[in-house]
Amino acid sequence: MTRFSVIVPVYNGEAYLSECLDSVVSQAFQDYEIVVVDDGSTDNTASICRLYSSRDARIRVVSQSNQGLLIARRIGLLESKGDYVLFVDSDDCIRVDTLQVCSDAIDEHGFDIVVFGMIRGVSRSCIGGIALGQIKASACGIDRFRCGVLRGKTNSLCGKAIRRSIIDISVSYEDYRGMMHGEDLLQLLPIADCAKKCGYIAEGLYLYRVNDQSSTACYKDSQLDDLETLFPRLIEYGQKWGHLIDAQVGIFVQYVTLAKILYLSKNNRKKRADSLGKMSESLVNQRFNGNTEALSALRIDNRLLIGAILRKRDSLCFVIVRVVKWVKQIRRLRR
């Protein structure tokens, strides 16, 4: 059986798909397949997919009508045959040694999940030219991993090699079709529930492109509906794992994330204030806003932002989000 299946869902990705696929077909490790799911693209994506599949027998292309990222990933899983699965978004890349490093970690430790670093920005110098055999994985207790998932610290499907047998591939996610915010976390919860051994590689093996036009980078009120769909599952697993407070922290983090998207999006003030009002009502409906233990676990800026959301303080939310972004930019420039 093939060791890895690399699943690449793509919708109108002609701008970056070639760079993404180049980074995968250039892997030093050879025992893998690539499953590209063309989710009803209307640009030149289909032609690019055909070109790459004609050049490399390891690439299989699945074409379907547009059904959204969640369903595209589920289709990719159904089509996959590898022992382990990696998800790579079509505008991102992986380093040339990603599969080799993951394979070595699996051989040495028998991990069900290998979590590896994700770094901002995509460049040729980052993708290639890596010295192999020098990167080691460390064990990460499954309890710690689950806490990280609940709190939103490691809730992306990307940046992980996941044993295929612990994924709920046979479960239908049709009821979640169209979900745009939190769909990664929704799928990761049952995976974390089944995992026994987890490893961590600090090295940045996944290169993600900051895309201001992505479906999750632009605020929509429907994202609140997505969160309210997600939260019962978050609470369910938090209770099952004995980490209810961590699940509640994770819910606060989701509102913080959504507020940042709202206040970094280009909306007029009235529309922004209307959306803030809906967000505040949604947060109040969670019924644990006075949970001081969960609130105290947040960073001070996030606690302030939660308070501003609850009070519908539009100007204060704007200032907090913009100042935090400015501080992060300054720190990034100083590195």
Task: Tell me what the structure shows.
About 50% of the residues lie in helices and about 15% in strands. The protein has 13 helices and nine strands. The protein has helices at about 15-25, 45-55, 70-80, 100-110, 125, 140-150, 185-195, 220-240, 245-265, 270-285, 290-295, 300-310, 315-335, and strands at about 5-10, 30-40, 60-65, 85, 95, 115-120, 140, 160-165, 200-210. It is globular.
Q: What's the mean pLDDT score?
A: 91
**DSSP strand count:** 9
Could you spell the SSE succession in H and E letters? EHEHEHEEHEHEHEHEHHHHHH
> N-to-C terminal Cα separation, in Å?
43 Å
What oligomeric state do the depicted chains represent?
Answer: single chain
Low-confidence parts lasting 5 or more residues at pLDDT below 50?
A: none
**Global shape:** globular
Q: Largest sheet, described in full?
A: 9 strands, mixed
| Structural category | alpha/beta
Helical content stands at: 40-55%
Q: Count of helical segments?
A: 13
The rounded Rg comes to: 20 Å
- Beta-strand content bin: 15-25%
Summarize the structure.
This protein is of the alpha/beta class and 335 residues long.
Salient structural properties:
globular; 9 strands; 335 residues; nine-stranded mixed beta sheet; 16% strand; alpha/beta; single chain
Task: List the topology elements.
Blueprint: E1 4-10, H1 17-25, E2 32-39, H2 45-55, E3 59-64, H3 69-79, E4 84-87, E5 93-94, H4 98-109, E6 113-120, H5 124-127, E7 138-140, H6 142-150, E8 160-163, H7 183-194, E9 198-208, H8 222-241, H9 244-264, H10 269-284, H11 292-296, H12 300-310, H13 314-334
Parallel strand pairs: 1-2, 1-4, 2-3, 6-9
Antiparallel strand pairs: 4-8, 5-9, 6-8, 7-9
